[in-house]
Design goal:
By secondary structure, the chain is of the alpha+beta class. Helices cover 36% and strands 16% of the residues. It has a four-stranded antiparallel beta sheet, with helices on both faces.
C-alpha cells in the first residue's frame, strides 16, 4: 500500500476480530513509531506495547471514551519526555500517526485513545495517572495516548471532507 493510500484508508476502528496480531506484524507497527522523527533528534518519547488482556481491560477505564480498548488485541501507549525536549507533544503525536498508518498498511484497524488533555489539566492528570499506575510509567513522562489495535470487525466508509479550497491555500491565506 502506498503511504497516501494508507492515509486515505485510515479510520477510527473500535470493533476488532478476536484474531491475535502476529508478533512480526506488531513489531513493524512499533518500528514505525520508533523511527518517527523527533525535534533535534532527541529521545523524547517512549513506546509501551501492551498485549496482556487484563492490562487492556484496565486501560479501558483511563477515560470514559476508551471502553473499546478492552476488545483490542494490542494497545500502544505513547509517552513524552518534557525533561528531554520541549517538543515532546509534537514528537509523541508524530510517532502516533506513523504507527497508526503502518497499522493500516498491515491490515490492522486502530483507534486513538487520547489521554493527555491540553485544555483540562485536572482531567489530564487523572487520565495520565491511571495509565501510569496501570503500565508502571514513571512520573516524569507525559502520557499522550494509547492506540488500540486489532483486525477490523467493521468497515467504515471514508469520511466526508470539506472542500479542498476551504482548507488548502497557496502562497498566502486566501
Amino acid at each position: 500500500m502506498e503511504v497516501l493510500e494508507a492515509i486515505q484508508h485510515r479510520r477510527e476502528i473500535t470493533k476488532y476480530k478476536p484474531t491475535p496480531i502476529k508478533q512480526e506484524v506488531l513489531q513493524k507497527v512499533v518500528e514505525a513509531a520508533y523511527f518517527a522523527p523527533t525535534g533535534n533528534n532527541l529521545p523524547s518519547k517512549d513506546i509501551i506495547v501492551v498485549t496482556d488482556k487484563q492490562l487492556l481491560k484496565e486501560l479501558g477505564d483511563t477515560t470514559p471514551f476508551m471502553p473499546w480498548i478492552k476488545d483490542a488485541q494490542a494497545g500502544i501507549a505513547i509517552t513524552g519526555r518534557p525533561d528531554i525536549s520541549k517538543y515532546w507533544l509534537q514528537d509523541s503525536s508524530i510517532a502516533s500517526g506513523y504507527l497508526w498508518l503502518e497499522a493500516v498498511n498491515l491490515g490492522l484497524g486502530g483507534a486513538f485513545g487520547a489521554v493527555y488533555h491540553a485544555e483540562d489539566p485536572e482531567e489530564s492528570e487523572r487520565r495520565e495517572n491511571h495509565a501510569r499506575r496501570t503500565l508502571s510509567i514513571p512520573d516524569d513522562r507525559r502520557v499522550l495516548a494509547i492506540i488500540g489495535l486489532g483486525y477490523p470487525a467493521e468497515n467504515k466508509a471514508p469520511k466526508t471532507k470539506i472542500e479542498r479550497t476551504e482548507m488548502i491555500h497557496y502562497n498566502q491565506f486566501s
